[in-house]
Amino acid sequence: MSEATADGPATAKLSAEGVSKIFGGLVAVDGVDLEIAPRSIVSIIGPNGAGKTTFFNMLTGLYKPSTGRILFDGRDITGTRPDRITSFGIARTFQNIRLFSTMSAVENVMVGQHARMKGGMFSSIIRTPGVRREEREVREKAREMLDYVGLRAAEFDQVSSNLSYGDQRRVEIARALASEPSLLLLDEPTAGMNPNESARLTEFMERLRDEKDLTILLIEHDMKVVMGVSEHITVLDHGEKIAEGLPREIRENERVVEAYLGKSAVE
Amino acid sequence: MSRLAELRNARWAPWLPAIIAVVAVALFPLFRPPLDATMSDVIQALAYVVMALGLNIVVGFAGLLDLGYVAFYAFGALAAGWFASDHFSKVNGGEGVHIGVSDFVQTAFPQGIHVSFLLIVIGAILVTALAGAIIGLPTLRLRGDYIAIVTLAFGEIISRFAANGDSVIIKGYALSNGRESISPIDQLNLPLVGEFDSATNLRFYFWTALALVLVVLFVNFRVRDSRLGRAWIALREDEVAAASMGVPLVRTKLTAYAIGATFGGIAGAFLGVYNNSVNANQFQFGISIFLLSMVILGGLGSIWGVVIGATLLSFVNTYLIPDVLDKGSFNDLLGDLGLDFTFGEIKFGVFGFILVLMMVLRPQGLLPERRRTAELTEGVGGDEAIVETRA
Q1: Which of A97, A136, B2, B70 is 20 to 30 A from residue B356's alpha carbon, by CA?
Q2: How high is the ipTM of this complex?
Q3: What's the DSSP call for residue B317?
């Protein structure tokens, strides 16, 4: 779409070019451009209904963009199936936690590794040595992941619906990490957390980026988290990108304040 | 550690009750006359267990409500009709094809295709797996109740096909004999052990049915505890999350349909041979519902539960209704009350009554799966509709 992406594919982890989503007569996302540098932590903010989650759903293949193009590591993934996109290396969490509620924490994380596993139907029935080994490794890795996100070992085999809210968020992140992504999308990860927990999560995101070589894109409402962790912020309102830049710039941007607080507050 | 504690901790210890039950069932025919009515009831029950276990994969594991499962029974039975009778009378220049069957079959039925039971089963598996994948395709874009409607229609289409198959002529051969039977179908021809006639001895039919149940059980357990089994459960609970975690929806659903269908085909092939004939009247819509009742009675998704549910309902059908409720004092009592009907006539009313009782007293089934219990008692596992479905 724009010239800004001319050198995009080579350097950007993810770039969206003029991406729109139209539901019937409603324009949920309107021609949004976005570029994310590798190993960065960036945020999308905006008032409720701004189209942030819709944008996420297009990045992960749940929605097909009405127009525009999405490139991941230089590869066009526009309208690709969600499971393919996961296997390319994008993983996500959901705004309202979507764990497999009757599965244990470990099983949830094992499903996260589905795309990285090989065991087919016939080899599973015969249970070949390869399948046996893979199952063992996947289970082991699931436990490591849960440990990494800070779940207590006693909770590993708990049915996920019995876990506390904070632990469910942890399991969801572990499940996403289990698919070995290079880009992690977090949809309001601090929703329902107290300031203390939010601060810990902020730290954790930075650790993830450094230790796992991840690029992180998050949707977030908690401005303390957003301003603290983001290297770059994009602001959506009514489906349109109204601003982007460094946290400092966004804080002072008049249109952003207006979108959040209303016009009268600015005047 | 004491000897007993060692035994209790052995890896096979949890399987002990099952092993004892299987051995007991396997020995059962030896204590009965070779043409025992109870034995034939059990054979029928075992065949239903195979089908119910197949349906359980589709409905219980993957959560895709299938109301047309009878179609796979039909395909399996037709496979027996095609591959073990003189249906294809002109094949091989009228000299027939005989593989692994007794001398008696070769001399008595020189025409048509006659193959060993194992080959019939393999043929049935191929035919029904394909049929399962085909029925799966149109349902892939659908959710919940709509899947049920499509499968219901598919079941009806197949039974219509079987009923009118005598006018579907391909290369000079009819698809089926319609409401007339494809008959006689060869007796059970097993490799190594030979041929067995259901008119004189049912024991080997019994053991064959039991062997089929064991194979199907084995596959059920193995698949459930695999990558595929986890993917099915994930899909059942939350399709959107499953897809986002890398589970390919189309392929995972189709595999469920195909494996489930295969079991129906195996049971169908067996029943075709056991009943000695295949006709369209055997493939009633009621069978789909009957099988679904077995799965629900036993506990959706619970393998042992389904085995129990299928056995119980099958016995209600072949023993309790005709031999207890419709005979003797119970029937006289009805007559005294001035009620002029037999329970055989209102069979499905009886099954329906059992289901209603279950829903009131024990909605999770007789032997529920751990996950289902959680769903029913804690209200988890609810599904939020995805806004846009993708194939």
Answers
A1: B70
A2: 0.90
A3: I
